Every structure is written in C-alpha cells, then in structure tokens.
Amino acid sequence: MTYATPADMISAFSEAEIIELSNLDYPDATTINTEVVTRAIEDAQAQLDSYLETRYRTPLAVVPAVIRNYTCDVARYILDKDKPREEVTRRRDLVFYYLKDVAANKASLPGIQEGTNGSVGSGGTGVGDVVLFQSPGRVWTNETLGGW
Q1: Domain boundaries in the chain?
Q2: Do 48 and 70 meet the contact criterion of CB atoms below 8 Å apart?
Q3: Which ranges constitute the DSSP H helices of the chain?
Q4: 115 in helix, strand or coil?
Q5: Residues 115 and 50: beta-carbon distance below 8 Å
Q6: Which letter, b or e, does each residue of 89-115 get, where b requires 16 or more Cβ atoms within 10 Å of its Cβ?
C-alpha cells in the first residue's frame, strides 16, 4: 500500500509547488509530472519503512495520518533536491527524529499494534482482532461462600 498519493502532496502543500517541484527541468510546465511525484513518494516510503520495520511489518496496510503526512514531507524534500529550502529540510529532519523514536520504542504508530502491519486478518496479526473466551460460570455464589 502506498503511504501517500500525488493528491496528498497537493493537499499538504499546493498544486503550484508540486507542479514546480515535479518539473525542475521544465520551468514552463503547467501540469504535475505524476511519474516524478510518484517516484519521490516511493523513495520516501522506502526511507520510512527502513525505520518502521524494526517494530512493524512493512509496508503498512493501514496508514496513520502521521505517516501519510511524513511521507509527503520526505517526498517534498526529495523533489526539492537541487536546493532544499530551510523549511523543507527542517520538516524532513522532524520526520527522522520521530522515526528514530519509533525505532527506539519511545514512540508508537497510532492504531497499529507492534509486530503487525495494521491489517485485520485471520492470523491474529492485526489491530481489530477479536479475542473470544468462555467463562466456566459463576464461581462466587452464596452457596460457595458458605456464610462469609
């Protein structure tokens, strides 16, 4: 599963910025080069997965908003490769501070159980699994307590 899409990049930043960043070699371009943006997103996801796989199965089947947003930040940094702006570099650095905390067990992914990819399956590997148990019945009754 892809952690972000070109549409997520547009929502996070702006269409004008994504057009510019995806067409660095063609400054007169008026449309987004989706191939370039998709490749940057895939590269960003691979970087995130290298940290996440220390505690989770990757790729994640359920993508928390924080991972979607951080994928966009890293992809933006990748697209801004010639002269990364200070804000872009700062946001990318914050992503890796968070990922290092996740890898060091100081932070967790919201809604995803450690050791899983967040999917709900029959193998007992995901958030949302249901545990069923059966009680032997009532143990403490007036008869079993016998005058206590």
Answers
A1: 6-145
A2: yes
A3: 6-12, 15-22, 34-52, 65-79, 86-103, 142-145
A4: coil
A5: no
A6: eebbeebeebbeebbeeeeebeebbee
pLDDT of residue 116: 87
- Tell me how many degrees the CA angle 4-44-74 measures, rounded to the nearest 5: 90
Considering only residues 127 and 18, tell me which one the structure prediction assigns the higher pLDDT. Answer: 18
Is the Cα dihedral 49, 52, 54, 55 positive or negative? negative
Q: If pLDDT is split at 50, 70 and 90, which confidence band does 127 have?
A: very low
Per residue in 71-90, pLDDT tens? 999 999 999 987 779 999 99
What are the C-alpha distances in Å from 135 to residues 130, 138, 141, 143? 16, 8, 15, 19
DSSP 8-state assignment for residue 25 = T
Distance CA 9, CA 147 (A): 70
pTM of the model as a whole: 0.78
